């Protein structure tokens, strides 16, 4: 049984209330940090833990904190990014619904570490129940003296506010989130300056994902070294994976990083295998924006080694044969799934969610969606496939924020790995409308490259 | 920090003040190394970075840290560092990316230049001519909007808009209140006033000058004439609201349009008020300074050749 950190007490009835959470060792991190540690100690522990941002980019949290500018007389802010809107990712919502106090506790400790006296939780507008739950949790914590003025008599003041967003995917990008939080249109800012220098209201700001912040309290209680022991290599700790798609047991799982992908999909502890006895065709390993991989490449690396659930192992092979851990939205597709339709669906999402600020993303996402729609509905041409690759290349890297890349990668990778399926769609429009291409040879073992002697 | 920093753009070295953007450093050099800019406007704070036509490659970050920047950067929003090496037209990657951006900008543009008032002084026209491809690969319906009157003097033709945000910045920074902005998202976003409202203040006319395309046009000039049949003349008058320095566009004896004076990058020197722009259309209102200098390559100069320039001689034999 793997170690659980965030979801350890998830099955205890009433864990969403302050009393039960406190009885099970909750808010110990706040007591420890505020009473016995200095702010720099907390940052140091987080650095030692090797915790990496759980929102998608995987940037080390401790390092991000140490970049925060600390000019005199200027307030600093901690903003929790709870604008989880990546298709296939639903871990933060789960965490906020069932153990909201984990997040609040992490927020208090993190705000203390950064010296922030006002912190915000920016929640996606669609998550109205979660907003209520968080507000209730904040009120409970405040009643118990863990929030407000002079917390636990240590002289540290902190207010946490919950801010509902409008439900735009782009507001999950940190600078767009800050714009939206300031009450403006959620357009990503042009960087530099980075939020650590000039973020919310022009003040130094740290934006962290819900899961990263929630993990901080455990790190404070048990120490950064203890956290670093879990996991593999530079991917330390545990990660929430939102497993969905054609599997027997979809849901949110906490895994120790370093678990093999094969075990994650097929073991009964996790996904429990492919549903209805079908065979695995493809996996989107980290939420819709990461490259899709066929069965043979997701289970095994190009050199035949098993692929592991970690930042490094999933990215092994770069864009040619690798993908990314991203935000942990693990979408499994069986042999009946149509990759073209799936790609079109993702593309439709990015077209809808592009903010329209910079031209490659604004125009390119719509263009890709239209071409993919044409291929999916049997009006495609052979040249469309190359056109898609070219358009995705023109978007990638040329935009202000990573949404452009996120829109380009699924299309580029789908064509890279499933080109024959796209071609089949173009050549057999009638058949593509009623049936699908099936598993083909995507699950066949990868030919091992012979070493030159 | 008064020391100058050295930056190399397309193998041309120049020393500029710290804090200068790559684009402005390139403009100091001038000529072909200047990246095109559709959304950047030096007079408007915070503009730029959106159209991505000014992308350049930074092949050496600075003298201290010679690593190249991983992606192409928007030159209008990236400040120079000492010892920075920038590649603009010498980098095939940049040329290719720019071609892509031009194609993106044009896929939803109606390409109605023959009936567009901006034709001849349109930045998008110049851009696509200089950096674009001759054909588009886009085979779908373009997005369309209804034409809107915003105020009695300005027409908004949203189809042509490239969403450069210049008019939004202008309203924010030049006028005392902004009533228009970007509505919607992605390729459905549009300039609008939300509830149909007139943009009505003394400096609202400037949005026409800053618009790089024909999306915002002067209703007092619409369909009156092609730009290249008119003759620009610098003039000024005493105005209590603005500097009063303008360009009058003559058709014969008649002033058919008044605009701010624009520099070689199409940016106005100083913003002018609506009284000067829309109401003073008689020669007697103005003190004439002399003909505006127009770049010889511009289509605007096609009707008034400089006498010193010889007309091109066409060799009839080759036809």
Automatic annotation (TrEMBL), chain A:
Matching Gene3D superfamilies: 3.10.20.600, 6.10.250.1450, NADH-ubiquinone oxidoreductase 51kDa subunit, NADH-ubiquinone oxidoreductase 51kDa subunit, iron-sulphur binding domain
Cofactor(s) essential for the protein: [4Fe-4S] cluster; FMN
InterPro entries assigned to the protein according to its UniProt record, in alphabetical order: ComplexI_51kDa_subunit, NADH-UbQ_OxRdtase_51kDa_CS, NADH-UbQ_OxRdtase_suF, Nuo51_FMN-bd, Nuo51_FMN-bd_sf, Nuop51_4Fe4S-bd, Nuop51_4Fe4S-bd_sf
Keyword Cell wall biogenesis/degradation: no
Keywords recorded for this protein, A-Z: 4Fe-4S, Flavoprotein, FMN, Iron, Iron-sulfur, Metal-binding, NAD, Oxidoreductase, Quinone, Translocase
Chain's role: NDH-1 shuttles electrons from NADH, via FMN and iron-sulfur (Fe-S) centers, to quinones in the respiratory chain.
NCBIfam families to which the protein is assigned, alphabetical: nuoF_fam, PRK13596.1
Protein family according to the UniProt entry: Belongs to the complex I 51 kDa subunit family.
Protein's name in the database: NADH-quinone oxidoreductase subunit F
Originating organism: Solitalea longa
Automatic annotation (TrEMBL), chain B:
Required cofactor(s): [2Fe-2S] cluster; [4Fe-4S] cluster
Key word Transmembrane present: no
GO CC list: membrane
Location of this chain's protein in the cell: Membrane
Boundaries of every 2Fe-2S ferredoxin-type domain copy: 3-92
Gene Ontology MF, one: oxidoreductase activity
Matches recorded under InterPro entries: 2Fe-2S_ferredoxin-like_sf, 2Fe-2S_ferredoxin-type, NADH_UbQ_OxRdtase_ferredoxin, NADH_UbQ_OxRdtase_Gsu_4Fe4S-bd, Prok_molybdopt-oxidoreductase
Top-rank taxon: Bacteria
SMART domains, alphabetized: NADH-G_4Fe-4S_3
Keywords of the record: 2Fe-2S, 4Fe-4S, Iron, Iron-sulfur, Membrane, Metal-binding, NAD, Translocase
UniProt domain 4Fe-4S His(Cys)3-ligated-type: residue ranges: 93-132
Chief location of this protein within or outside the cell: membrane
Pfam families: Fer2_4, Fer4_Nqo3, NADH-G_4Fe-4S_3
Family: Belongs to the complex I 75 kDa subunit family.
Record's protein name: Fe-S-binding domain-containing protein
Taxonomy of the source species: Bacteria, Pseudomonadati, Bacteroidota, Sphingobacteriia, Sphingobacteriales
